[in-house]
Amino acid sequence: MKRNLVFATLAVAATLLAAAAPVNAQATRTWVSGVGDDANPCSRTAPCKTFAGAISKTATGGEINVLDPGGFGGVTITKAITISSEGFEAGVLVSGTNAIIVNVPNATDVVVLRGLDIEGLGTGLNGITVLTGGTVFVEKCTINRFTNFGINFTPTVTGSKLHVVDTIIRNNGSGVNGGGILVSPSLVAKGSLDNVRLENNVLGIRTQGGTSNTSITNSVATNNAAAGFASATGGTLTVEHSISSHNGTGIGCASGTVRIGNVTLADNGTNLSTGGTCQSFHNNDADTAITVTLIAPTPQ
Question: What share of the chain is helix, strand, coil (3-state, %, to 5)?
Fold first, then answer.
């Protein structure tokens, strides 16, 4: 009788351990490799093959690291996480679909995308799409050849944020639509760009809708068919220490609010569109005359 009781207890314990295994299997740091396998546990010695394979084995708030060069595929992100490649080619190549979808529920959920080469082959939809909310950091990435936008930031959760640093966004949009970055929240959201190059897109960046406040510093918009930097109804865009050149329109403020300071406008079809609120708070340099409203800088 006692032996049967022991066996029964061990069987129950084994069942409980098996049920808990998937949760315990999630690691705070996982790894992918060009020669990995998604059947692996995504450890450093047994890495996974794709970001999609690794994300289910990575704990919330954890990090996926790239071990060596490879193509790691598109991924949908539903929790706070970091995907990072330092020093290796980390390709995200898609055709006819979105490359990276961020669909986290809260504005406080932090997603970091670092060192990725995101390629749409001329048929991909968006390079990075932010749907529900979150605070999203895009660092040291290249986003190329998507038919809609390189980054499509359209959150529905108030307080969401987009931060883009040290990144190249080029050759995005199709015909007269799409472009480098769209900031178009449903409610209140903020964005910032620092040391970003917006090159050869239909549109460089446009802020619109909800209450979107976006700041751009130390950045370049060049050879964009429509406008380099633009704001539409509901959007407020502040551009400082940046260059807009060789675009259809250098700064577009036909219906939104744009504030500029220490900005160079050169060789655009039109340096500055008018009709919205166009304000200048510091020295600007333009190769043709522009009309702006002078305002005092905001005290710090």
Answer: 10, 50, 40
E strands, 15-109, are 27-32, 58-66, 70-71, 75-77, 81-84, 90-93, 100-102
106-146 pLDDT per residue, tens = 999 999 999 999 999 999 999 999 999 999 999 999 999 99
Asked if 181 contacts 205 with a C-beta cutoff of 8 angstroms, the reply is yes
Q: Which two tokens stand for residue 262?
A: 């220490």
CA distance 5 to 173: 68
The dihedral built from the CA positions of residue 290, 292, 295 and 300, taken in this order, carries a sign that is negative
Tens digit of pLDDT for each residue in 215-243? 999 999 999 999 999 999 888 999 999 99
Task: HSE, CB side, 13 Å, CA atoms: give it for residue 203.
Answer: 22
Task: Identify the three-state secondary structure at position 58.
Answer: strand
